[in-house]
Amino acid sequence: MLAIYRKELKSYFTTPIGYIYIGIFLALSALVFCYTTIISYSYSTTSYFSMMLFLLVVLIPLLTMKLFSEEKKLRTEQMLLTAPVTITGMVLGKYLAALTMFASSLLISCINFIPLFSIAARERAEAGTDVIPIGPSVPQIIGSLVGVILVGAAFIAVGMFISTLTENQLASAVISIAVLLLMIVLGFVNSYISNYAVRFVIDWISVLSRFAPFGYGRFDFASILYYLSLSSVFTFFTIRVYEKRRWS
User: Fold this and answer.
1) Cβ(105)–Cβ(152) below 8 Å
2) Which of 15, 18, 102, 205 is most buried (most C-beta within 10 Å)?
3) Model confidence at 57, in pLDDT bands (50, 70, 90)?
4) How many structural domains is the chain composed of?
5) Higher confidence at residue 48 or residue 201?
6) Rounded percentage of the chain residues whose pLDDT exceeds 90
7) CA-CA distance, 72 to 164, in Å (whole number)?
8) CA angle 59, 177, 244 (to 5 degrees)
9) Helical H runs in 109-220?
10) 137 burial type by CB count under 10 A (0-12 exposed, 13-18 middle, 19+ buried)
11) What per-residue confidence (pLDDT) applies to 41?
């Protein structure tokens, strides 16, 4: 698994995809951050992280579209299937490489908070006391970051599974965007449904509603379990697809 992880992580930087992804991620996150906090004169980061979830709908497929589609297109898939590594190790290696790229980009984007904390420090100094609660909420930021990483982990698993279904990277990206967007907008559709049972089910599986506690700096165990389960299920589906191909 470690060899696959290293190979896949290196491949992001031997091709333009890794650089394009990081550049787009940092540029979009900076623009969204400026719009939702500095330009809006707000220390609340709730809107920023909520909009980041929508950005993931486009950003995550950039990472996952090549995971298996490229192997099929280059006819190197058979080499993977006959390599001295388990299917589980192969899939987890690719999954963890994509997750590392995503988490690293997200953590690098945290430099966006530097000017916000600087402005807050200056305002506290001008107020003449450090007791005044001026500035962004650190627990809220940490909780939201953890929540975004969990959502990203689930989205990567979904995109990786879709990548196994086609050898066309563009098709993989488009299908992934459509599926991830559907998972996001379910939370908005829910308010227009009158049937309580249907509304309850949609609210339970909604990515947005599950993310809400993290936006307040709370670590909800049920939400954490939901995202980890979603990641595990689609990773398992990917493993099953390749186990079937190995023996077919």
Assistant:
1) no
2) 102
3) very high
4) 1
5) 48
6) 35
7) 8
8) 105
9) 113-127, 138-163, 169-189, 196-205, 207-215
10) middle
11) 81
Q: How far apart are CA 9 and CA 162, in angstroms?
A: 19
Select, from the ranges 68-77, 116-125, 150-159, 205-214, the one with the highest average predicted confidence (pLDDT). Answer: 150-159
- Neighbour count for residue 148 (Cβ, 10 Å): 23
State the DSSP H helix or E strand holding residue 12, giving kind and residue range, or none if neither. Answer: helix 2-14
pLDDT band at 152 (very low <50, low <70, confident <90, very high): very high
Mean of pLDDT values over 189-213: 73
pLDDT at 210: 83
Nearest alpha-carbon partner for 160 in 223, 79, 93, 226? 93
Residue % of the chain over a pLDDT of 70: 84
Long-range contacts of residues 131-140, Cβ cutoff 8 Å, at least 24 apart: 134/43, 135/43, 136/37, 136/43, 136/44, 136/45, 137/43, 137/44, 137/45, 137/217, 139/217, 140/44, 140/45, 140/46, 140/215, 140/216, 140/217
* Residue 166 buriedness (CB in 10 A; 0-12 / 13-18 / 19+): middle
Give me the helices (H) in 65-131, please.
Answer: 69-73, 77-82, 87-108, 113-127
Domain assignment of residue 212, given as a range: 2-247
The two three-digit tokens of residue 61, written as one number: 């497929």
Please, are residues 207 and 179 in contact by the beta-carbon 8 Å criterion? Answer: no
196 pLDDT above the threshold of 90: no
> How distant, in Å, are the alpha carbons of 31, 64, 132, 160, 210 from that of 181?
21, 15, 41, 16, 15
Quickly tell me which residue has 């896949």 as its tokens.
8
